[in-house]
Design goal:
Elements lengths: L2 H9 L6 E6 L13 E6 L3 E6 L4 E6 L3 E9 L2 E8 L2 E7 L1 H4 L2 H9 L8 H7 L3 H7 L1
Antiparallel strand pairs: 1-2, 1-7, 2-3, 3-4, 5-6, 6-7
Helix pairs in contact: 4-5
């Protein structure tokens, strides 16, 4: 079993309930700065952010999210959120954004995501063309 598989098994992660995110800036939600990675695990009414290197396992209620907006920058798809009044910005790869876990997360926040146009451009079939002309 690989280290990744061991980690996923230890934290109850799989493609249906989790995906990898990377912070876009320091925030008041979890420790770490730009480019710190976390696993985002979906639970029934919360998410859990996990970074085993930092020893962090932080649970956040979906109700804590007040705003969520997609944007494309630096070749990544970013989700810019307000959580309990604090900025929380992160990105992930195209493969991760298209995963079942990410789609389930977006569904949980669908009532506050203002626009999915950037998501569709970034994950669509012609995403390479969009990146060239952008």
């Amino acid at each position: 079993m690989s280290k990744l598989e061991e980690f996923q098994q230890a934290y109850g992660l799989n493609n249906d309930n989790s995906f990898l995110i990377v912070l876009g800036m320091q925030n008041a939600i979890v420790p770490g700065g730009t480019w710190t990675s976390y696993w985002l695990r979906l639970n029934e009414s919360t998410i859990t952010l996990i970074n085993d290197k930092l020893g962090v396992e932080k649970e956040i209620s979906y109700d804590s999210f007040q705003v969520a907006e997609f944007g494309i920058g630096s070749g990544n798809l970013w989700l810019q959120c307000k959580v309990d009044g604090n900025d929380f910005v992160f990105c992930s790869t195209k493969k991760n954004w298209k995963s079942a876990g990410a789609k389930a997360f977006m569904q949980k926040l669908s009532h506050i995501i203002s626009d999915v146009k950037a998501y569709e451009q970034f994950t669509g079939k012609l995403s390479w063309l969009y990146r060239i002309i952008k």
